[in-house]
Amino acid sequence: MTDSLLQTDDMSAASRLLDAGFAERSVSVGDAMVSYRQCGSGPVIVLLHGIGSGAASWLHCGMELGREAQVVAWNAPGYGNSTGLPMAQPSAADYAVRLEQFLAALGIQECLLVGHSLGAMMAAAYVAAGRRRVAQLLLLSPAQGYGSEALRERGATIASERLQALAALGPQGMAQNSSGRMLSPQAGEAARAMVRWNMARLNPDGYTQAVHMLCGDDIHRYVPAAVPAAVYCGAADVVTTPQASSTLAEAFHLPFGLIDAAGHACYVEQPAAVAAVIRQHLKQLFQD
Prior knowledge:
Largest sheet: 8 strands, mixed
Order of helices and strands: HEEEHEHEHEHHHHEHEHH
Radius of gyration: 17 Å
Number of strands: 8
Number of helices: 11
Strand order of the largest sheet: 1-2-4-3-5-6-7-8
Strand content: 15-25%
CATH class: Alpha Beta
Number of domains: 1
Structural class: alpha/beta
CATH architecture: 3-Layer(aba) Sandwich
Distance between the termini: 48 Å
């Protein structure tokens, strides 16, 4: 890599760890490909990233969980080396169809599914469709979308702003200031470097599809009633705020918890704390 953004000492160590213990691989799903990262063995935890990120962002949280579980972090369609979706403006349900194909291709019959931000919308849509591969669902700092009648105009504005920024700055330009809203003011440079590193690698076409999903769909269409579920949020999240996340949890009749000292990218900023929450739910799953 020649870009100075990607040459920080913090990311040099993380890059080596990615290659050694959380390497990217891929699997065919019909005419498409899904790339993902994997570590560990045992019960399966599947991790879905948000709109400005990728599978690699789960590195430290995933490696922590990999001590006692098989951890699978996908690159959503149009991210990493994953093939984009065929429609220009997909819904969360369209991403959920690809997720089902992905889990089937890996032979995953039962998992704990964790979705962060936009990934939470995909995860909720997957469970709401009644598919049976998920035994428990966690929504971390869930994006709720702007597809409702009340928010549609706001959604159109946000889509225009995001796509204009992409056209003007490109992924690397967007990455330069990305950690400001994604992390708490107290976040360390290693977490900030990880956020920038992932955003700098966005595929413009995949990001564009995801923007249309965010701005055209609504998580309230996908009530995840089929399996046990919970909602968590970073205590310092200014993107999907604790108030918004707790209100969603109440609407879905789900328990709600906070991740202390964490902003929106809670699992990047506090990987051990988020891993502990996921591990707690994993133990509950197999105790029941």
